């Protein structure tokens, strides 16, 4: 079979660099001012289409000339991608040394290693879950898109060469695009971040560009008016994407067609279309397009570190950091990228590969050394937050004898399960707060204990949780009902402990009664649950949740080994007492002798204040309601004392 491929002319297209400028401006705008440009993240989709178009054009031109070399292709990719990447990764690791706590720096090391291996998207995908750290606090989060592109570069050149020899280029392009688009739809419907991070659901966007690279014949047939019309249509689709898409949409899914088709139309219209020639080819846009890659790499770490130090940096600071990123990008382009591009490959290649590999190895060393804690901290400094908890689930947990009764399928990003074994165990049920209470109990006591729960799901019979903004049901059932039922009937469970974070109900999320489909107050759901559990005859303890502090109240020193100032991280004890009184009334409504309460705040309140009361330890995570290892150990000891009769 013959390849009927019509290649675009090899001439440089300034309008494509103009498109790059639009894409990077959208991404930077979204990251700096998400409230002003909530759809800016679709700029990455524009980049994907452009990359697919340019890379496939180069590959097909080499194949047509009989000069195809996979080695030469990768040499060109290394010279294009590695210089700025190595520089930014080294800079981020260096800044992290002075600014990040041990757990944060260890996490950054893992991300650097993933970025160097071009698997950052897979690393972030594996981290997805309620218990994960907010994305804006990950300085290398933006490397996920490079991972997708590099995985495309590993697969597509080989598949394209194979298809070329058999005359299947168009069929291969359409086949891969169709399969990837179908995966995108399926994974988007399934929820979670699979569709966002996995290459199988993103390749269709690059394949859209690959298809354009093969159909220059269709573009050439357009009249002048036709080119202008297609260009305007593309701009309209792209504008619609920027206006209509936001983080509440099921994305990518069908919505990604707006930026992908819009970009495809603008490329297809050609450089002579009025909009491409008069707008996208303007010198300022072309200049931004030329530095778009280093700008993409530099802007996010600057904004991320600013948010690590201040949860909400001022608009002026964010704008200033974007300006700094632009200056660094220009310097990187002029002093690094251009020089490497013109250097001899035999001299440049070992250095580039070695630099990125060194960044990856450095990341692994940082990860293995627990964030270089011993090298950067000693016992004399002010406190630092220890978040080095054990894994939230045991390997193969869903296939254990207990796991099969509770978890219908494995979801390690959201499920909590651990079993210390032994005889009669204390079952701790609930959400991520219960997970940390369980960790504290196992640190403070040698009791047998069992951890059963799911992120964001309170331990109430017949309920689930729904986000108000998106209407998304968090899928608490059947896991929660299964866990409660198991704890009530299982002979190996000697006592039951319930706890959960109940902040936000009625504000950004609702607790839904599955029987009626209506919202239910947490206190009513708790009373109903206790009435059922009391029938088991087992001791049931409601662990009243820990005090909620202002988020980001701690101030870290610089350098970080000077410690963390937590003096502002307290609330009046009266506020905590009011919150506890509401739940205590729900417990009293159960009117059962085997149901009681335990005040976890007893470990976290002193002298009329609750929160960070220990000058030697940081007790809270930065979100103001999850506990650190030190905080968990404190409340675990309180729970242990409340369970004297349980083996």
TrEMBL record:
InterPro entries xrefs: Acyl_transf_3_dom, Acyltransferase_3, SGNH
Listed GO CC annotations: membrane
Top-level taxon: Bacteria
Keyword flag Membrane: yes
GO MF annotation, one: acyltransferase activity, transferring groups other than amino-acyl groups
Metal-binding is among the record's keywords: no
Domain SGNH: 417-640
Keywords assigned by UniProt, alphabetized: Acyltransferase, Membrane, Transferase, Transmembrane, Transmembrane helix
Acyltransferase domain span: 15-333
GO biological process, one term: lipopolysaccharide biosynthetic process
Transmembrane segments: 40-60, 81-100, 141-164, 171-190, 251-270, 282-303, 315-335, 347-367
Pfam families: Acyl_transf_3, SGNH
Protein name: Acyltransferase family protein
Organism taxonomic ancestry: Bacteria, Pseudomonadati, Pseudomonadota, Alphaproteobacteria, environmental samples
